[in-house]
């Protein structure tokens, strides 16, 4: 008998036995099936319902008489295919939350203050955690991928940063048009030529925390590290770049668009 193989697919022992019985005896009434299997009528109706849900039998009714027929065994391959698709969906669902679950684990077990975030919502969560520190932020940014990948969140991020009076120093390629120097937005930006600075991620330093973010849709991840020594050394690197970078001179049009609110900060 092949009960074990069918049970591995998920069928119960009773389901497997009735299905194999129908394969042997062909189209049958409930009474005929009862004569061939050791189950009571009530149990058999439950088994028939289960096999219909598995799409392994079909019911026909003629002259007020119902008969049940086993479908071709190739239907078992369909079960495997459905299970495979469901497994892929479960894997995708897990990947959506795995980063945050890992972060929770790391925090609980004090894994050097490292948190991992994945996907659009995960990255938004990482930026929110950074704002919760409520300290000045030094940023080394890419060509403007943040505005493309999470454009709907960017304005909220800036608004929250301003409301919490968090000043932001930014170093970015000269082609980055998102974060310009603005007193109103509590930000000073300096630039480096994109040919010398083909940066493809966002780095933020805030007190003792560093945030590394890749903003490509196909590989969007963020890693947050809380460590005073690492943060201190990255801030030294930031200061070096800051003094090498160029204060951006805005055109009269850009100044007008910022309500004459552009300021050169003495930093």
TrEMBL record:
Signal sequence segment: none
Record key words, sorted: Coiled coil
Top-rank taxon: Bacteria
Chain coiled-coil ranges: 77-104
Domain Transcription regulator TrmB N-terminal: 6-73
InterPro entries (alphabetical): TrmB-like, Tscrpt_reg_TrmB_N, WH-like_DNA-bd_sf, WH_DNA-bd_sf
Protein name as catalogued: Transcription regulator TrmB N-terminal domain-containing protein
Originating species: Candidatus Magasanikbacteria bacterium CG10_big_fil_rev_8_21_14_0_10_38_6
């Amino acid at each position: 008998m092949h009960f074990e193989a069918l049970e591995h697919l998920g069928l119960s022992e009773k389901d497997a036995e009735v299905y194999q019985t129908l394969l042997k005896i062909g189209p049958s009434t409930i009474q005929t099936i009862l004569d061939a299997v050791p189950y009571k009528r009530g149990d058999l109706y439950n088994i028939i319902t289960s096999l219909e849900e598995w799409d392994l039998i079909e019911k026909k009714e003629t002259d007020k008489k119902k008969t049940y027929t086993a479908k071709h065994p190739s239907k078992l391959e369909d079960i495997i295919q459905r299970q495979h698709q469901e497994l892929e969906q479960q894997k995708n669902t897990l990947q959506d939350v795995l980063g945050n679950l890992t972060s929770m684990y790391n925090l609980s077990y004090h894994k050097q203050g490292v948190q991992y975030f994945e996907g659009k919502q995960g990255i938004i969560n990482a930026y929110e955690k950074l704002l919760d520190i409520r300290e000045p932020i030094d940023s080394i940014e890419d060509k403007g991928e943040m505005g493309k990948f999470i454009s709907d969140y960017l304005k909220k991020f800036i608004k929250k940063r301003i409301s919490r009076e968090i000043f932001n120093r930014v170093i970015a390629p000269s082609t980055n048009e998102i974060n310009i120097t603005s007193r109103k937005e509590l930000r000073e930006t300096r630039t480096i030529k994109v040919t010398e600075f083909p940066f493809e991620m966002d780095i933020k330093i805030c007190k003792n925390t560093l945030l590394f973010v890749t903003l490509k849709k196909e590989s969007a991840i963020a890693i947050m590290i809380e460590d005073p020594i690492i943060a201190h050394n990255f801030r030294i690197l930031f200061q070096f770049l800051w003094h090498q970078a160029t204060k951006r001179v805005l055109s009269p049009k850009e100044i007008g668009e910022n309500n004459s609110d552009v300021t050169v900060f003495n930093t």
